[in-house]
């Protein structure tokens, strides 16, 4: 297996986010968007023949005088984006998979690689973590020292408490220019039939209203999906501390409820007109990144 496709646990063990981000991005071999397009800009790129209706201000009159032909000067137009990375850092993200890697640790690998890709394209990239203590942010920037700042914030981050109240995330909702927002979390705080309006539900709806593209990456550990625990086990809610005794006879009922919740969760996110991806924490991050960057279909709002 190529080195960039090492398991998430192996990549985490390298303990060097800068190296890991580069390896994952190179393994994915993709970009968030075309970085430049042809048009009327500042940096000259090429000539093309004049066509009726073209802007005469872009006509090269000196070339016309020499050749008796009419050409327009084309330039590269900057299409850089602002990429905002949002992480649910509530305590449920501390759930470990069978290899011992938590959702938070997997999210750290994925977000570092997304930041690397965006920065390499010249985009301004920023990071925000959402947890009970509030909003922890690194404002978007495209300068050379931004990646070290982001990597430091990711390394220092811990997952605690519950998802923050709706008012805490207000700074994330300002309407700005071209942007891509990537939300990463386990989505346990999304609305349900019993609790139709939650801070996370409000955030996703408001992010869509604020403009730009929004991608939601739903993280699951394989063991919570399969519930492959011993015949009897005690399960604990990492955010409330509530404990539940489990035995193998409950597995079928759990699976049915889980599949129902997953369908509802995906429908809710897509119903807002957002992109949705379900990722497992045992999936090589380069493979996950490649899937994300392909540009999935999005349901219309």
From TrEMBL:
**Coiled coil regions in record:** none
Gene3D superfamilies from the entry? von Willebrand factor, type A domain (3.40.50.410)
PANTHER family, sorted: BLL2464 PROTEIN (PTHR33608), DUF58 DOMAIN-CONTAINING PROTEIN (PTHR33608:SF7)
Q: Name one Pfam family in it.
A: DUF58
Q: Which InterPro entries match?
A: DUF58 (IPR002881), vWFA_dom_sf (IPR036465)
Protein's UniProt name: DUF58 domain-containing protein
Question: What are the DUF58 domain coordinates in residue numbering?
Answer: 46-257
Q: Which organism is it from?
A: Hymenobacter busanensis
Q: Which domain of life is it from?
A: Bacteria
């Amino acid at each position: 297996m190529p080195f960039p496709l090492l398991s998430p646990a192996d990549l985490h063990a390298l303990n060097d986010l800068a190296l890991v981000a580069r390896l994952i991005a190179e393994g994915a071999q993709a970009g968030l968007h075309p970085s430049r397009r042809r048009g009327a800009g500042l940096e000259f790129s090429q000539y093309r023949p004049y066509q009726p209706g073209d802007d005469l201000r872009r006509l090269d009159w000196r070339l016309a005088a020499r050749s008796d032909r009419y050409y327009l000067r084309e330039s590269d137009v900057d299409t850089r984006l602002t990429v905002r990375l949002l992480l649910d850092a509530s305590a449920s993200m501390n759930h470990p998979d069978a290899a011992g890697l938590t959702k938070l640790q997997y999210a750290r690998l994925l977000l570092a690689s997304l930041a690397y890709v965006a920065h390499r394209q010249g985009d301004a990239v920023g990071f925000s973590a959402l947890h009970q203590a509030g909003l922890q942010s690194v404002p978007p920037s495209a300068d050379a020292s931004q990646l070290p700042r982001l990597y430091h914030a990711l390394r220092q981050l811990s997952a605690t408490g519950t998802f923050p109240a709706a008012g805490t995330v207000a700074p994330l909702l300002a309407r700005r220019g071209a942007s891509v927002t990537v939300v990463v979390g386990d989505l346990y705080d999304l609305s349900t039939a019993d609790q139709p309006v939650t801070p996370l539900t409000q955030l996703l709806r408001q992010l869509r209203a604020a403009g730009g593209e929004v991608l939601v990456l739903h993280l699951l550990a394989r063991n919570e999906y399969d519930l492959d625990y011993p015949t009897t086990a005690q399960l604990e809610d990492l955010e409330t501390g509530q404990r539940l005794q489990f035995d193998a006879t409950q597995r079928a009922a759990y699976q049915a409820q889980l599949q129902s919740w997953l369908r509802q969760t995906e429908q809710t996110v897509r119903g807002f007109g957002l992109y949705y991806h379900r990722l497992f924490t045992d999936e090589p991050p380069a493979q996950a990144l490649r899937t994300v960057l392909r540009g999935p279909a999005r349901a219309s709002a």
